[in-house]
Amino acid sequence: MAENVNIDLSGEINATTEKKGLQKYVNEVELLLQHVRSGAAPALVLGLLSNRRPWTQFIATENFKSPASIPRLTRRFYRNIEYFQANYLVIFLGLFAYCLITSPLLLIAMVASFFGYRKLTSGPNTWKIGSWELSKTQQYAVYAAASMALCWLAGAGAVLFWVLGATVTVVALHASFFDAESLPPSDEQFPMIEQV
Questions:
Q1: N or C: which end of the chain has fewer CB within 10 A?
Q2: pLDDT, tens only, 94-146
Q3: Which residues form the signal peptide (predicted)?
Q4: Is the pTM higher than 0.70?
């Protein structure tokens, strides 16, 4: 005597697996971009800057040593990036501020672009070209084209590549040669035990 038993098996399975290595950082960047889009960027930057390590520890010359092997270099690099990320952000912001101060035309272009964006998003603006009224999407397109042209004339491309290049160089050299074994122990995923 078999009974008919109906069991509802519908639903979702949310299996969260711990991501490792590069995929972990890709997921963190995606999460960061979601926060930036939601308008939480200033709070994120201030939260990150609150985790800044002491500069005396960051530039302690006695802790700079060449790595013994490539696997150790990789673990050292990731450990330093994770540990000193706020300090690296301050270096990037400092180089960016230096470029703005030494290039007044770029500063004027960025301020004009910022105020143009604020004006565009502040309320219901209507732009007319002759008898044709631009939609909001078309207004954003015109604004973006004008801002890009203004920044191009001010030399923003060269400044961007200089700042990114200088930041990547400084961060890569520091993260590669700063001995991570001298840092306080933590429970991160890159242990300083060399695999043989």
A1: N
A2: 999 998 888 889 889 989 988 988 888 887 777 777 788 888 888 888 888 99
A3: none
A4: no
Q: Compute the distance between CA of residue 19 and CA of residue 99 in angstroms, rounded to an integer.
A: 37
Q: Which residue has the tokens 């006695």?
A: 62
Residue whose token pair is 């203004």:
150
pLDDT tens digits, one per residue of 8-57: 766 666 655 555 666 777 777 777 777 667 777 677 677 777 788 888 88
How many angstroms separate the CA atoms of 36 and 31, rounded? 9
Given a contact cutoff of 8 angstroms between Cβ atoms, the answer to whether 15 and 3 are in contact is no
Identify the pLDDT of residue 186. Answer: 57
DSSP 76-100: HHHHHHHHTHHHHHHHHHHHHHHHH
Type of residue numbered 113:
S
CB-based burial of residue 178 (10 Å sphere; 0-12 exposed, 13-18 middle, 19+ buried)? Answer: buried
148: left (phi over 0), alpha (psi -120 to 50) or beta: alpha
